[in-house]
Amino acid sequence: MEQRFLRDLLDSASRLVGDVQWQAAFRNVLMSPADAALASPALKLLNILYRLQGQGIISGQHNYLESPDEFSGKLKATSGQYAALHGYELGAVENQTVQLIDSQRQAVVNSAIRWHEAGGIVTMSYHANLPGTAPAWSNVSMSLSEADFAKYITPGTTQYSALIADLDKTAQSLKKLSDAGVPVLWRPYHEMNGGWFWWGQKKAFSQLWNIMFQRYTSYHQLHNLLWVWSPNAKNQWCDEPADYYPGSGSVDVLALDIYEADFKDSHHDALWELGRGKLIAVGENGELPSPEVLAKTQNKWSYQMSWGKLLYEKNSDAVIKAFMNDSFVLTRDEYAAKAVQYASMPEAAPMPGLYGQYYSNATLSGTPAHTRTDANINFVWRQAAPVPALPADFFSVRWSGRFSPAYTESYTLYTSSDDGIRVWVDGVLVIDSWIKQSGQERQGSVNLIAGKLHELKVEYYENQGDARAVLMWESPSQAKGVIPAGAFYLP
User: What share of the chain is helix, strand, coil (3-state, %, to 5)?
Assistant: First the structure.
């Protein structure tokens, strides 16, 4: 039975795109990296993180610039396990001399190389002092007006030159890691939706982010970086994170800094919706999250990172031990084993089409009377049955699979149906018109990412009379029309 089903899928693929070329044309595309020239080690890490999504949360621990291994070592002593993700800092905040900063950053680089070679993941934060000022905490946490901030992102100004000089200096450490083949989850300018850093709550924040992105990827050719955008969880002291999102074209991971044990499902769900399938993570936490809650309702988090000394200030040893030894939490050894396993797996080519389940009732109940692969959703059955196994009236269909757009932008999806229809994209209900209707067009908006295989589910039911189910799309770059067969892939 399974062999016949696979043969049928292969036959469908061949008919849709040609016997010779179909496998190349429908190769598996995970999320496209922000850096189109991403180096192989970083691309490997990105793909492994996508493969692990939903299987558990990768444990992480932050360490300070002055002591880059301190708390990762303490966590190992307490729990018997290393966290898989080692957090480092490149920002200097203690008014150190240039020589001492260079020495401390070199110690970070040395530790990060060792950590990578041991099978762990490297992430780096950057508490940047206001360019041109002393490397002191007061120059990181200072207030800055919108007008003064604008000077730092305007080419030709003294402030802009100071910004570029600071970026170039920090790039030297990242270049050493690039040369050593170490991928880095790079996390600059975090908590930008709050007002406690000089870059915080600025209307033009995205310009600052993109200046660094372009400087590092294009000028410095740092292709070992996965870009982590990390706002604070929405609370009374900060704005909505989405207001400061620079866009999918310069972000690989959307991470949320969560304190006061504020691990709401809504935080997780809103970030997932904003990223539309991008990796999401807990960028910082004090209190450790509950693995049970994560597994049940927040399983899209890829990793978490406890912040420095807060691991012990906010959690008892018993809680730390329980967390690190929970089956849903991945330690360094567990992550390294899975990384080796996934790295050896060939990328599977997705099969074209949608999986259609056809029911001989209008409620999608029971066992489907017929299943098949449909090229797309463009059916005008009028008063005929879709297949001989179904009646002409009172039937229903569920299509499931994935679809991939050509452009990264906001799309409008349209349905034309007689009768009820509803559409989900990446688990979000986009169109809900589960009523008797005659050839009505409905619409809903979604943010889609070019090359990404977005999850799709469409449900339809026919009452009596004419039957019709059509799925269309439109965007600023995509003319309105039926979504073509080449855009759909089986689950």
Answer: 35, 25, 40
Does residue 3 belong to any structural domain of this protein?
no
Please indicate, yes or no, whether residues 305 and 244 belong to a single structural domain of this protein: yes
Residue with tokens 């950057």: 126
Contacts of 244 (CB under 8 A, 6+ apart): 192, 193, 205, 206, 231
Q: 299 — phi, psi (to 5°)?
A: -85, 5
Cα→Cα distances 28→402, 404, 491, Å:
11, 11, 12
- CB contact burial 301-328 (16+ within 10 A = b; e otherwise): bbbbbbbbebbeebbeeeebebbbebeb
Amino acid at residue number 154: T
The lowest-confidence range among 168-172, 178-182, 370-374, 410-414 is 370-374
pLDDT in tens, 339-358: 988 877 665 567 789 999 99
* H or E segment to which residue 470 belongs: strand 467-474
Strands 420-425 and 60-62 turn out to be unpaired
How far apart CA 92 and CA 105 sit, in angstroms, is: 9
Taking the C-alpha atoms of residue 257 and residue 59, their distance in angstroms, rounded to an integer, is 15
What interhelical angle do 98-117 and 158-179 show, nearest 10? 40
Same domain, 124 and 233: yes
Residue 196: what residue type?
W
Measure CA 117 to chain center. 25
At 124, give phi and psi (nearest 5°). Answer: -135, 135
Question: What dihedral do alpha carbons 293, 295, 298, 304 form, nearest 10°?
Answer: 90
Residue type, 147: A
CATH number at residue 212: 3.20.20.80
The span from the CA of 213 to the CA of 233, in Å, is: 23
Helix H or strand E segment including 11: helix 2-17
Question: 1 by DSSP, 3-state: which?
Answer: coil
Residue 33 dihedral angles phi and psi, to the nearest 5°:
-70, 155
**DSSP-assigned letter for residue 68:** T
- The kind and range of the H/E element at 473 are strand 467-474
Domain hosting 161: range is: 40-343
What are the pLDDT digits (tens) for 234-278? 999 999 999 999 988 899 999 999 999 999 999 999 999 888 778
Other Cβ atoms within 10 Å of 145 Cβ, number: 9
